[in-house]
Amino acid sequence: MENIEYKNENAWLKLDKREVMDFSESYKQFVSACKTERETVSFVWDELVKMGYKRLLKPEYAGGDFFAVNDLKSILIFREGKTGIENGINIVVAHIDSPRIDIKQNPLYEKFDVAMFKTHYYGGIKKYQWATLPLALHGVIMLKNGEKLEVSIGESSDEPVLVISDLLPHLGRKQMEKPAREVIEGEALDPIVGSIPVKDEKDKTSVKKAILSLLNEKYGIVEEDFISSELTLVPAGIARDVGFDKGAITSYGHDDRICAYTAFRGLIDAQTLERPALVMLMDKEEIGSEGVSGSQSDFLEYVLEQYMKKNGINGISVREVLHKSFALSADVNAAMDPLYPEVFEEQNAAKFGHGIVITKFTGSGGKYSASDASAELVFAIRNLLNKQNVPWQIGELGKVDVGGGGTIAKFMARRGIETIDAGPALLSMHAPHEIASKADLYSSYLAYKAFLKSEIKI
Asked: Is residue 243 part of a domain?
């Protein structure tokens, strides 16, 4: 008898454990090394060059597959299919920025013989989670001579880390009476960067001067160079296995580099493509996809215009191509947390280790600011994943009046692209160390690969 009930089953029961574990090792290396947008773009760029891909927007391009880089913080990878671009494209779009703590442009100061950096947090964080953690400094500084200094300090065991201090419990009674969002204020996320003074008893900023001297001697930095810098604090250290069975991974930046890596691998590992396929790895999603490197920019349209121009494709506009295209907004969802079940609606919540999560709509409250996929598109994706034996589940982000959140989906839909959200479910999303199931990681890879190489019809 046909099974007439929907069952959300554990993905481990459907997958080859050895394949899952092998894929997870390569992902752990990636997410440990790529902690910023620039580092992610650089990694993908190097891999594509090894495979013979050419940059579309450079003279080296002479047709065929390509990649295009925008502001060194977002990258588009395109593969041609059996049919031309005139029939539309299969697109997977993920973001490569993650919540973090940015360094201000005039950061260095001294107080009570301790040198510190002033900061401004980026994206949605619980500020108290970032105190007392070992933090690494990543980014770039443009020096006064025009040289670009790439910075990564704190990842190696022989390198110093930066740390944000917190009150001891003996003196923190009033602090602990505050709402959680006020326990640590935004202006109190300043890390310690030094404590050894120069030998000048009359100088009240002798520690600051000692740090400036050290930075100048080692890196050629003067204080004004910080103004032309992009520096960020991220948790130091590598991705680690979680649990006695090693079934999960804890790491900084699963949201959303877990989707970026699986989408990228899905594209390059796919065999023959029925239609052209495009993977977009974008910046600024955590703050609304704004700016020149975000998904609200016209970089997608510009790249397609240049591709069509260079390949002599006439008689169709980019707008027509986009209206014939389909997209997966590859972003994470929230897994049912066994410690906090009260914020989830269990029947429609995603479960940890149960496969990639298909999210019909995003937004909050009454679906405000949502992208809401059609029933026809949901069926097409459901049908595809079933045929390819990819573990999947449905999910939404918390109870109706409790949860909610946005993704890139609405910015793709705004272009006329039929779009639906699809990605793994995390525990501790937006925390310095998030937790992902290896089964969900691998299921996402299988799902993106299946979508990118298939012909979608609705």
From this structure: no
